[in-house]
Amino acid sequence: MAAEILTIIELGNPVLRQKASLVENIQDDRIQKLIDDLTVTVTKANGVGIAAPQVANASRLFIVASRPNARYPKAPEMEPTAIINPRILGHSTEVVKDWEGCLSIPGIRGLVPRYQAVEVEYTDRHGKSQKQEFTNFVARIFQHEYDHLDGVVFLDRLESTLDLMTEQEYQKLMTNNTKNVNNSKER
Ligand code: ZN
Asked: Which of 53, 112, 134, 180 is most buried, most CB within 10 Å of its CB?
């Protein structure tokens, strides 16, 4: 059956605040289809990650799909990866603050502190256990999506509401930063 674009639920929907349940049968057609549907949904929405609770399915499953796009022009390129029943085994002491958005909280960006690196364990879509370290932007995506499985959104992680911006002001800021970088190169 062909993959479908799913409806993304938004802040205020109680499913986003639920603790998601472990996926028991990864080979189940419904889970395999959910993985395909989430992958096309995140690509269509210019996201770099999406968690099952964001399509109102409270399962411990998410997709990390980092690649440069309109919302994240500097994202590194990787194959979309399904992360099932993940655990964070360890993390760096270093914490980095950077801008994040969320497909379930449209129009808002926030400066969110995250561990620079995380060591993780998860099951892949073939049912194989994987142990991996993620760093920088991909580690950020992982922590953001992982939070969704526990009913946590990036707004909960902000140090201050002063670290919030609308998408429009964020785009202006990014355009100005790029200009400044170019200017300094010219000098
Ligand atoms: Zn999100």
From this structure: 53
Does residue 41 have a pLDDT over 60? yes
Given a cut of 50, whether residue 39 has pLDDT beyond it is: yes
Q: Which pTM was predicted?
A: 0.93
Provide the 10 A C-beta neighbour count for residue 139. 22
User: How far is ligand 1, taken at its centre, from the CA of residue 179, in Å?
Assistant: 29
Question: What helix, strand, coil percent values describe the chain, rounded to 5?
Answer: 35, 25, 40
Domains in the chain with CATH codes: 14-178 (3.90.45.10)
Whole-angstrom distance, CA of residue 98 vs CA of residue 151: 21
How remote is the CA of residue 185 from the centroid of ligand 1, in Å? Answer: 35
pLDDT, position 75: 87
Which entry of 77, 145, 169, 186 is annotated as an active-site residue? Answer: 145
- CB neighbours of 29 closer than 8 A, spacing ≥ 6? none
